[in-house]
Specification:
Layout (H helix, E strand, L loop, with lengths): L1 H41 L20 H28 L3 H21 L3 H23 L12 H14 L17 E4 L6 H12 L4 H13 L4 E7 L2 E8 L2 E4 L1 E5 L12 E4 L5 H15 L1 H6 L4 E8 L2 E11 L4 E7 L16 H11 L4 E7 L5 H10 L8 E6 L10 E6 L7 H9 L5 E4 L5 H13 L2 E7 L3 H10 L4 H7 E13 L5 E4 L2 H7 L8 E4 L14 E11 L2 H8 L4 H10 L5 H11 L4 H19 L31
Parallel strand pairs: 10-14, 10-15, 11-12, 11-13, 13-14
Antiparallel strand pairs: 1-7, 2-3, 2-9, 3-4, 5-6, 7-8, 8-9, 15-18, 16-17
């Protein structure tokens, strides 16, 4: 009863507030009207000065028409720029519409400046501005999503509602809801001639599954997926995405949002249901047609290519098939935009650690190791370490297998060997030494003979930088020892061992606060007042901003083991526990501590850190079974895996 009384009182208070607002408006209108009547009764209103409406004797334009003239100019400048960008986005003859919006208006504005009839001039400028805009909207709207229509009743409703909301007036939003999906265009590019490409594209556009294929790629682009897996199941066609290194089913809104304001209920996201078999098979047929999969199969190629334009930006794609025990999967790989950091700090490395790495890279000789588990962004970190060296002051060479594909770093000369032809990397190293380099680089170090020779050179006069697969910085040191490198030689030349793990970042729109657990406060030695809350993934399964993934993008956690105590411990043949203590004494902060520190900043969740380091333990178990992952191997995607719990690894590309 008390709660009901409080609600009734609140409602009465709100009604009273609205009544007061209405009363103020009525009183103001009455005062203005009374003043106008009184003024009309006493004497006439003062006449407006002629200079405001008509030209003077010299022909100069009046003040009011001049203001209107500049208003039209400003409106035209904004809309003409939008027409050009929008027509380029939807590929609706951008040059033609740019000319239609520019030249007629420029001509009419000059006419309006000189003709003596101000009203006619203003009307002419209005028509020259609005007519091209209206004609463009007629051609554009059928190709645009309903929520982006212009020059329509719905557009006016959206604009008016937005204006009222900015003024603090509560209005009901228009019924059209933007699904947030990007604009996608399928382009055939795999044929030998443009005519054949156009033929494939026209055939695909005429097929019944064309819109379903576009929707499938729209969902993938919105989710930032790098790989799409289409699998025929008993209940329909299942679609899976690989996003930020996690493989899982595509996502969709399960329950739409309800209400508004404080009573608004967020929409709920869940795994998307399987596609109907007819719809899914139709979409697959369209994708195979536009990629020329049948022609590629006849020519002996394993996959076929096509291009997807996402909001006007081209993204090359590859379509291939993979046979499983129960079905044949269609795999579509979308080329992701390149991640191009300019310094180590942009990867997530702290400023102090980045400065320490640059300091080590400036030394004349020694061995520096970069490591990570397979397919977790080690190549990006390795490239950035190389970019922090003085490549302009000394000669660098890189020992590479000709079958591997890595981004070339400026001023580092590659010396290649062919493992498939029986060539050994040690022979390539001997050939490279004929040029007397001062620094040697090699990736994915596995060859024991090469490792031993590189350590000898690092002890002699060379700076040696290598990468290898390991779970952490100290595991990388142990991997070198397991290759047969004498501990005393490794201890003398080791500059540092840098290791990394990739971790997903929480969606900034749907991540929710969570009271800091007491165990975490104790770990950080903080009080609840100093760290009142951390963040967790949305309990509603995500939002439109993250496409139901709860996370957007990734950052890296780093640990750097370097220092005299570590080198001394290596030489003394201590166990792993003592080796870690020595590294910590030299200033190493373990990866797990780095992960918890990121949790404290709200960048990621505690569950995500636990997932990453659970995957680390699994990687260690696999390494213990003496199975070696091949560099660049693709992770197997299982459509039934949940996006928040899969221990999948990174996509092999950058963060």
């Amino acid at each position: 009863m008390v709660l009901r009384g409080v609600r009734m009182a609140a409602g009465a208070s709100a009604m009273a507030g609205r009544s007061r607002q209405l009363a103020v408006v009525v009183i103001a209108c009455w005062a203005v009207g009374t003043h106008a009547v009184a003024a009309g009764a006493d004497d006439a209103w003062p006449r407006v000065s002629p200079e405001w409406l008509s030209r003077d004797a010299g022909g100069g334009i009046a003040i009011l028409p001049l203001v209107c003239w500049w208003v039209w100019i400003a409106a035209w400048a904004a809309t003409s720029d939008w027409v050009f960008r929008d027509s380029a986005r939807f590929k609706i003859r951008p040059e033609f519409w740019a000319a239609c919006t520019v030249f007629p208006f420029v001509a009419c504005s000059l006419i309006a400046w000189w003709i003596p009839w101000s009203a006619a001039g203003q009307a002419l400028m209005a028509l020259a501005w609005l007519v091209p805009l209206f004609l463009y909207s007629r051609e554009r709207n059928p190709k645009a999503p309903p929520a982006e229509s212009v020059c329509t009743i719905a557009h006016l409703q959206r604009a008016f509602s937005g204006l009222l909301k900015r003024m603090g007036v509560k209005v009901k939003s228009p019924s059209i809801v933007d699904d947030g999906l990007p604009w996608v265009t399928l382009v055939a590019t795999g044929a030998e001639t443009p005519e054949e490409n156009k033929k494939w594209q026209d055939e695909a556009a005429a097929m019944p599954g064309f819109e379903a294929a576009k929707k499938l790629l729209q969902d993938a682009a919105a989710a930032r997926s790098s790989t799409i897996v289409i699998d025929a199941a008993a209940d329909g066609i299942r679609v899976a995405h690989e996003v930020d290194g996690i493989a899982g089913p595509s996502r969709a809104v399960k329950t739409p949002a309800k209400g508004s304001g404080k009573t608004k209920q967020a929409e709920v996201w869940a795994d998307a249901p399987p596609l109907d078999a007819a719809i899914g098979n139709g979409a697959v047929a369209v994708l195979r047609t536009i990629a020329g999969a049948d022609a590629a199969k006849l020519s002996g190629e394993k996959d076929a290519g096509f291009t997807v334009e996402v909001d006007g930006k081209k993204r090359p794609c590859r379509l291939s098939t993979r046979a499983t025990k129960t079905s044949k999967q269609i795999i579509i790989t979308l080329e992701t935009p390149p991640f191009a950091p300019k310094k180590l700090e942009e990867l997530g490395m702290s400023g102090a650690m980045a400065a320490r790495v640059r300091e080590l890279m400036a030394l004349e000789k020694g061995l520096f190791v970069v490591s990570s588990p397979p397919a977790t962004g080690c190549s990006t970190t390795f490239d950035m370490v190389l970019l922090s060296t003085d490549r302009l002051l000394r000669d660098f060479v890189s020992i590479e297998d000709s079958s591997s594909h890595h981004q070339e770093v400026q001023n580092i000369k590659p010396v290649r060997y062919s493992a498939s032809a029986g060539e050994v990397p040690l022979a390539a190293l001997k050939a490279a030494m004929l040029e007397y380099p001062r620094a040697i680089v090699t990736r994915d170090l596995l060859d024991k003979d090469l490792a031993g020779k590189l350590v000898e050179l690092a002890n002699d006069q060379q700076l040696v930088i290598v990468s290898l697969q390991a779970t952490d910085a100290l595991d990388a040191v142990q991997k070198l020892i397991d290759m047969g490198i004498p501990r005393d030689q490794l201890a003398r030349c080791l500059l540092g061992s840098l290791s990394q793990r990739l971790i997903r970042k929480l969606c900034t729109k749907c991540g929710e606060p969570l009271p800091t657990p007491p165990e975490l406060l104790q770990r950080f030695k903080k009080t609840a007042e100093e760290l009142p809350e951390i963040k967790r993934a949305s309990p509603h399964g995500g939002c439109r901003f993250c496409a139901g993934r709860q996370f957007i993008g990734r950052t890296a956690l780093y640990e750097l083991a370097a220092g005299p105590t570590l080198r001394q411990a290596i030489a003394q043949q201590v166990d792993a526990k003592v080796l870690k203590q020595a590294a910590v004494k030299d200033g190493m902060r373990p990866l797990s501590d780095e992960g918890l520190a990121v949790v404290a900043t709200g960048l990621t969740s505690l569950d995500e850190v636990q997932r990453v380091f659970a995957a680390k333990k699994e990687a260690g178990a696999v390494a213990g079974s003496k199975t070696v992952s091949q560099p660049g191997a693709k992770p197997v995607i299982k459509p039934g895996t949940s996006p928040g719990t899969s221990p999948g690894t990174g996509p092999g590309t950058k963060k």
